[in-house]
Specification:
By secondary structure, the protein is an alpha/beta fold. It has two domains: about 5-270 and about 475-500, Aldehyde Dehydrogenase, Chain A, domain 1; about 270-465, Aldehyde Dehydrogenase, Chain A, domain 2. It has 13 helices and 23 strands. The chain has helices at about 55-75, 75-95, 95-105, 110-130, 170-180, 195-205, 225-230, 245-260, 280-295, 315-325, 345-365, 425-435, 450-455; strands at about 1-5, 15-20, 20-25, 25-30, 30-40, 45-50, 135-140, 145-155, 155-160, 185-190, 215, 240-245, 265-270, 270-275, 305-310, 330, 365-370, 385, 395-400, 415-420, 440-445, 460-465, 495-500. The strands form six sheets. Strands 17-19-20-15-14-21-22 form a seven-stranded mixed sheet, with helices on both faces. Strands 11-10-9-12-13 form a five-stranded parallel sheet, with helices on both faces. Helix 2 (about 75-95) packs across helix 6 (about 195-205) and helix 3 (about 95-105) packs across helix 4. The protein is globular and about 75 Å long.
Length: about 525
Amino acid sequence: MHLKANSPAVAHHGKTLIGFNWIGGREVEGDLPSFDARSAVDSRDIVGIFPACGERDVEKAARAGAAAFRAWSRTPAAARAAVIGRIGDLLGKHQHKVAAVITREVGKVPADALAEVREAVDLCRLIQGEDWRLGDQAVPVPAPGLVSTVQRRPLGVVGILAGSYSPLAQPMRHLLPAILCGNTVVWKPSEFAPTTAYLLVRCMMDAGLAPGVVNVVNGKGHGGCGKHLVAGLDKGLFQKFCFTGSRAVGRMVGEVAGRNLVPAGLELGGKNTMVVMPGGRLEEAAAAAVHGAFAAAGQRGAALGNIILHKDVAAEFKERFLAGVDGLAQGNPISHPEVDLGPMISVRLAKGFEEHWETGRSDGARLLRGGARWTEENRTGLVQGFISKGSYMQPCVWDEVTPEMKLFPAQVFGPTVNLCTVDSFDQAVEWANSIPEALSASLFAGDPDLTWRFARELEAGLITINREVSAAEANQAFGRTGWNGLREVDGFTRCHAVHEDALAVPAQAVPEFGGKPIRYEPSHWDRL
């Protein structure tokens, strides 16, 4: 692990890591000039320096994955699972250092960053225990003497394009089941969080993952390395492709994968809903709404986008909710780790967030809070620390939003939420179901009949009752338009049916695993 001194102005943030691509078990440079991974908290802080990859680098990585596939796919599932367990052990050991880098790179407040690392450790434990599902399944057949089994076989090389605000746990939901099932991987991390990805790679090295099983290429997204990764589908480089990001790019990825008959796992954005009815606990609902809308500065797939209020509780809920919004501490999460909201990940994403202000105004929605960027000139006592070198946005609250407005279905990446008022429960369900990309929805109500109906009539992938909108647990598969079973090993295998004449085939001894341990250069975590 190579590090150098950071800029003196931000030396207290930490050192600058000199990173690499990882291809065929070796740390290598790319064909293109290196790029800086700058902190979302303070752009003077260079968290890492990484080589950018071009078309040839992607092809090299795919070839390395293909070369490693034969041996890795034949490695017993229990041995593959043991490697995943060791990766989890190492992440747990270094969790505070990894979390500190997540805060620097993408601006997550320290508590959220540490929670993400612990989620990643939990994912390792969960996926490690899934190896039993890869055993042969006996199928009864009527023919005497015939043994029939269904076997799960790996697909091949899996291409993975990851998102940015959950730079560790989210890609691991693809990586871990892929390699457990015997596949190999070419992964392009987010250009905004390559240092976090590199630390995961170092854990994989320290855990002894075989060379070529996971290959990492760095660079820009749509106009750079990401473009070449998607183009690899047309070249036959990948047998499955996973993408996390916007619906527009996901649609393009799905089209390319479809014409090549390659299964695609698309984890796309959605607009999540909370419905509040009479009888619901308004104080708890308001607190859950504040956290659901503005945790992680609204930059997560499970962020709350629309709050649909029955007219009889709308006024009281708004009063409680706005009081909670007005109490949010915001600012620099490194100098003030107690803040509730940090910065947006990048200037580009912040610009997209700013554009939604004009959309809301042109729609005719009423702006109750926000609509500006925090600066040294307009900051209040709730804004903590140095903010001049990051994109710090005021929490935005829109009122009187209806389904006819562009603001209602559009996923806005950032700290914003819409308040909508309805006359009945049926209207609330109709409005919530009008968004085909809804990933999750929640209801606060005291009537058991309404909670029963909500759980069955809402078309979102995940339903919560009397709790905030949230993401699925690690061991839950859930789906809606644009999703598949991302948390299941099934999506990374194919079924293979075998019929065998038991009387004609002699019993075979089960071979023992005799692989040699893999040795890499020590990671030297003490230097980070």
